[in-house]
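[step 3/7] inverse_fold.run input=structure_tokens len=143
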């Protein structure tokens, strides 16, 4: 009853879902307050930024979502179905000649390579990771 609730939602969450969720939380759980916040806005909190362009790299598409002074601007968002992680996986697998057993390594590579810190400190070191995939790339380059 004393906990405030913040719901992180997608850009296109239907209003009827939002209303139903609010009714349940207020009526059943008696919460004192509720905030609905777009996921791109929440992603800026740990970086201490209030304005930025957030790139959401989803499975099926990639979207650029502008945030200005803590307010998401969904009408100005742009997306591309050609640049989702599904297509990135496909392109990497074709270029690196990866078989189905090694596809989970692509997830790991994409996850580690796609976060960009706008203000890295000199003490932050990028960890070196030995991927089994590197031997495959070396073999392709030799032939």
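[step 3/7] decode complete -> sequence:
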């Amino acid at each position: 009853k004393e906990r405030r609730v913040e719901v992180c939602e997608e850009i296109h969450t239907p209003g009827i879902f939002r209303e139903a969720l609010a009714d349940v939380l207020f009526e059943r759980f008696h919460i004192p307050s509720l905030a609905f916040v777009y996921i791109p806005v929440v992603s800026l909190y740990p970086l201490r930024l209030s304005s930025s362009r957030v790139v959401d790299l989803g499975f099926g598409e990639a979207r650029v979502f502008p945030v200005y002074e803590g307010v998401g601007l969904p009408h100005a968002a742009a997306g591309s179905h050609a640049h989702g992680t599904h297509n990135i996986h496909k392109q990497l697998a074709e270029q690196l000649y990866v078989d189905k057993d090694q596809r989970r390594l692509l997830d790991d590579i994409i996850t580690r390579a796609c976060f960009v810190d706008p203000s890295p400190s000199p003490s932050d070191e990028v960890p070196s990771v030995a991927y089994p995939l590197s031997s495959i790339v070396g073999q392709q380059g030799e032939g």
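[step 4/7] annotate
Confidence is low (pLDDT under 50) at residues 133-143.
The beta strands are 5-9, 34-38, 52-57, 62-68, 71-72, 78-80.
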